[in-house]
Amino acid sequence: MRLGGQTHLKADRLFASTQTCSRCGARKESGEKLTLSERTFRCATCGHVADRDDNASQNLRHYMVAAC
Ligand SMILES: [Zn+2]
Fold first, then answer.
1. In this structure, is residue 26 part of a structural domain?
2. How far apart are CA 60 and CA 40, in angstroms?
3. Which pLDDT belongs to residue 39?
4. pLDDT score, position 34
5. 59 part of a folded domain
6. What angle do CA 27, 18, 54 make, to 5 degrees?
7. Which residue stretches of the chain have pLDDT < 50?
8. So what's the pLDDT on residue 49?
9. HSE on the CB side for 43, CA within 13 Å?
10. Among 8, 34, 37, 49, which residue has the least CB neighbours within 10 Å?
11. Are 39 and 18 contacting, i.e. CB atoms less than 8 angstroms apart?
12. Phi (first) and psi of residue 51, to 5 degrees
């Protein structure tokens, strides 16, 4: 089930990208996660505010850099 594990990891990272601050890397706790209707990411740790999709794309860019 190695392949399944990898697929899950990718999906997990994609999901986490919307819940992780692109500035300080803080991950939102389960009780404060964004829902699909919330369009703005607000970090409770550093106060960073960004469009949800912009924040997620910044995080994915970090992942890609880290993977190279
Ligand atoms: Zn932050």
1. no
2. 17
3. 94
4. 84
5. yes
6. 120
7. none
8. 97
9. 19
10. 37
11. no
12. -60, 135
67 lies in some domain: yes
pLDDT of residue 5: 59
The rounded Å distance from CA 1 to ligand 1 centre is: 35
pLDDT digits (tens, 9 = 90+) for 46-57: 999 999 999 999
Residue 44 lies in a domain: yes
Note down the domain range covering 48: 40-68
- Written as six digits, the tokens of 15 are 């999901």
pLDDT at 63: 77
Distance 41 CA to ligand 1 centre (A): 10
CA of 4 to the centre of ligand 1 (A): 31
Determine the Cα–Cα distance for residues 68 and 46; give it in Å rounded to an integer: 28
- Tokens for 6, please give them: 């990898």
Counting the structural domains of the chain, the total is 1
18 Cα to the center of ligand 1, angstroms: 12
